[in-house]
Amino acid sequence: AAMRSRAEVDATLQTAKLNPAELLPAVHCLSFGPQAGGGECCLLQLEPGLCAELEAGRSLVIRGEKDEHAVLCSKDKTYDMKIADTSNMLLFVPGCKTPEELKADQGSCSIIHSQIAGFSKNYWELRRCRPKLKKLRKLLMEDPYEGPDSRKDQASTFSKYTTEDLLNLIQASEEEILHQLQVIDACKIEGYWRILDFDYEMKLLNHVTQLIDSESWPLSKVPLCACLEELGSLEPREMIEHILLSYGRKYVDDGEVFFEMHEDKICRAVAQMLLQNAVKFNLSEFEEVWQQSVPEGMTTRLDQLQGLALVDKSSRPETIFLLKVEDLPEDNQERFNSLFGIREKWTEVDITPYIQDLCAEKQTVGALLTKYARSSMLNGVKVYNSRRPIS
Amino acid sequence: VSRSGGTGALAQWVLLELQGEVEPRQSGDLAGSLLGDLHYTCEGVPVLIVGHHILYGKVVQLEKPFAVLVKQGGASQPSPTAPQGHYTVTALIKTKLLFKTRPKPIITHVPKKV
What we know:
The complex is a heterodimer.
Chain A: H1 6-15, E1 27-32, E2 41-45, H2 50-55, E3 61-63, E4 71-73, E5 78-94, H3 99-104, E6 111-116, E7 118-128, H4 134-140, H5 151-154, H6 163-169, H7 174-183, E8 187-189, E9 192-194, H8 198-215, E10 222-223, H9 224-231, H10 237-247, E11 248-253, E12 256-261, H11 263-275, E13 281-282, H12 283-293, E14 309-312, E15 319-322, H13 332-342, E16 346-347, H14 348-351, H15 365-372, E17 373-378, E18 381-386
Parallel strand pairs in A: 1-6
Antiparallel strand pairs in A: 3-4, 4-5, 5-7, 8-9, 10-12, 11-12, 13-15, 14-15, 16-18, 17-18
Helix pairs in contact in A: 8-10, 8-11, 9-10, 11-12
Chain B: E1 2-3, E2 11-19, E3 34-40, E4 46-50, E5 53-56, E6 58-71, E7 87-99, E8 104-105
Parallel strand pairs in B: 1-7, 2-7
Antiparallel strand pairs in B: 3-4, 4-5, 5-8, 6-7
């Protein structure tokens, strides 16, 4: 269509009975651009901070496979995406000036031909969410590392994952993924992220704790060099260092590297090793064996087992069994269903380690319980049960 | 979703929010057809003349700006059910012109030739 002229614009103003003296001199003649109807453009509503990130040149990524709800990831945060419908038509116009801009621009021409780039009745809304990290563990558990002697690795047909692979498959930001890799004690072997097979991990840990014992080193000052020297013939040096990093805090003293061993984490690992071999244990028997099994100088306590094992105080005798929070569903409702399927009524103390990770940015465990559970009193103690009948 | 290439600042576009549907006057494509004239009063009130209607609106600074995404590859359109893919951020929108008042029809006694 031919471009409108100033004369035509003025004629329209006259027909519309608008007084040009009350208007700014410049007019935008809006027409639809060549791509306008194509639907290739869409709108994304930005949460605080994202606009600044884009302006600073950083990227945002939309992640999700066909069977997953898409999420948007910035460098360090993850957002759920949802379509918001408006009943109005939204047109996006490049080069359209605001009244302030027109007034500030003294030499503005009297006609601006603007092309509408696209239009939409809806846009994507974002809501900050927990990164979906359960898949990360699942992927790495497909092929746990069993050590260099394992014949399995050479013939392995399982997928192995690089950082790049994980970024493409996990619905979380890069920082969240890298942080989680650290949390689960993953390590990079030949460029691929691996989780250690638990038995191999215990074998490595045992080497270290036995050495600590035979050398009578204090648990807070285990020398890296000596470990590598003594154990280097048994296991790869990288694995020795990895196990020290997983179960200790690295520090430098007088130029030498030492590790302060995590007593709680070691006791916890020993407990897992004992508990995984049976459905449940007599509690007092377990506590005795457990204390005897941990390295000299360490003290076992039941609170070290939060999120790992559950004590059944209602059975006679009292029992304990393995229940790992990372084996439970990631979705809030599914998690609660699962927990109430395991036990009908929970105290807040017992259930907290199993729902703590569900809390959103400013959410408390109490808020979660209010939403997903119903409370009642049992023998003078407040307990929580399911809101709905469990089939 | 990456920023469009180049070191320049992202383009700033403006959003026009209108009630109702947008339809081409003639049968056939929307592309190239005129929408209307956008004026501002001296006080900064946007006035849109669309066909035989005058729409008065207001300038709104968006609390949550928009990013305009263009899908790369052009294969399939970004839909709510399958938004995955590579996108480029073409522009940011921090301002919208909201036309919510019912359009005032222009009553003409003058022949339509214009």
